[in-house]
Amino acid sequence: MKVKVLQNILDANTQMAQKNQRLLDNHRILALNIMASPGAGKTSLILKTIARLKDKTRIAVIEGDIASTIDADRISDQGVAVVQINTGGGCHLDANMVENALNNLKLNEIDLLFIENVGNLVCPAAFRLGEHKRVVLLSVPEGDDKPIKYPMMFTESEAVVINKTDLMPLLDFDLDAFKRKVIGLNPDVEIFQLSAKTGQGLDPWLSWLEAELKSLRA
Amino acid sequence: MKVKVLQNILDANTQMAQKNQRLLDNHRILALNIMASPGAGKTSLILKTIARLKDKTRIAVIEGDIASTIDADRISDQGVAVVQINTGGGCHLDANMVENALNNLKLNEIDLLFIENVGNLVCPAAFRLGEHKRVVLLSVPEGDDKPIKYPMMFTESEAVVINKTDLMPLLDFDLDAFKRKVIGLNPDVEIFQLSAKTGQGLDPWLSWLEAELKSLRA
Which of A23, A49, A174, B8 is deepest in the core (most CB within 10 A)? Predict the structure, then answer.
């Protein structure tokens, strides 16, 4: 019975996610669902990407948090449209929350939409939002064993961003082992390694975004 | 309706947690629920504590993970009794899982029980397991804003451990601001700051554990 209820919730969420994606497609908006543990650098990556792309790409952000508007405030300071979702304790965004947020954005003025999920390496993986690509960040201090311990997140994502590479020399992080584990779970995944703090390694990530934007408009 | 179902689940869990705590009390076992984001250093802190206390204290560990036995293997290598719980996707331990694990431990041979929860700064806060103390780890690379974004975890815990202090000089972590936020949420909380990697700052943590063990046996 318990499993059945959960299945119904997931089915309803998937239908709403498909509706969101059709709305985004109609407006030719590329939407990315950004997922990670707390403090892995989701907001920092979004901010750095805004700084580099905002002159040629119209960007908006949906910010998901349990509580507070800290991250939304940081993004709004960059002159980018942002809608805050507070889940009030919920451990992930769902498609219904994102639909409400989309209703509060001027969709005709957006090319690229970041949806920053709640900091959590578990729950967000089970809920589609209507995004075109799912991106999981893994920061170097978290350790290279995370794909084994939290496999669903790495299996379900189209891109993995290894963040905080500036700390790599100080920590026991086996980059090759990490990549092997990720590719073992998800052979077609894109892997980027960068430091959102220093900006090092950002170019391949930006090129990928631009190629995805181009292919959506082709 | 949805809220009511959740409330029933939480009530049933609380009753099972109380049953677990009575069982632990009968055996004079001090049980700690260790919670944190993925990669914050829960296993490392447990391992360091085992190394320092195992000659005078009989320690056992219940390891909670979505998948894998990596952490349980590391602990078993130290000659300590360990039971692995794989939640199979679930984002937190619950009291029922812990009851099953307790049935697989020799309770007459344990003084101190660590229950390492799934790496998650959200869901574990809502589920009591039967523990005497709840401990949340926050690693310095996660940032000092986490109590604002994930308040329940900091409100519900009896102790906060700031881990990876060896990285503090390299990162923008405002220790005073972090402590102020934690104390604002939870004025009576114990706060420790240490590096499980280097061992620096471990003594106050160990003294607290020993005092708690003593008071349980008084």
Answer: A49
Pick the residue from chain A with its C-alpha nearest to B65.
A149
Copy the structure tokens of residue B120.
């998650």
CA atoms of A32 and A136, how far apart (whole Å): 10
Which CATH architecture fits B2-217? Answer: 3-Layer(aba) Sandwich (3.40)
Number of helices (H), then strands (E), in chain B: 8, 7
B155-185: per-residue pLDDT in tens? 999 999 999 999 999 999 999 999 999 999 9
Side-chain-facing half-sphere of B74: CA atoms under 13 Å: 15
Q: Which residues in chain A touch residue B146, judged by CB atoms under 8 angstroms apart? A: 38-39
Using CA atoms, how far residue A9 sits from A88, A116, A126, B7, B10, in Å, is 18, 22, 11, 17, 19
Q: Is the Cβ pair A141, B66 closer than 8 Å? A: no
ipTM for the whole complex = 0.90
pTM of the model: 0.93
Sheet containing B133-139: give its strands across. B81-86, B59-65, B112-116, B30-35, B133-139, B159-163, B190-193
Query: Are residues A119 and B37, on separate chains, in Cβ contact within 8 Å?
Result: yes
Domain ranges of chain B: 2-217
**Minimum CA–CA partner of B152 in chain A:** A89
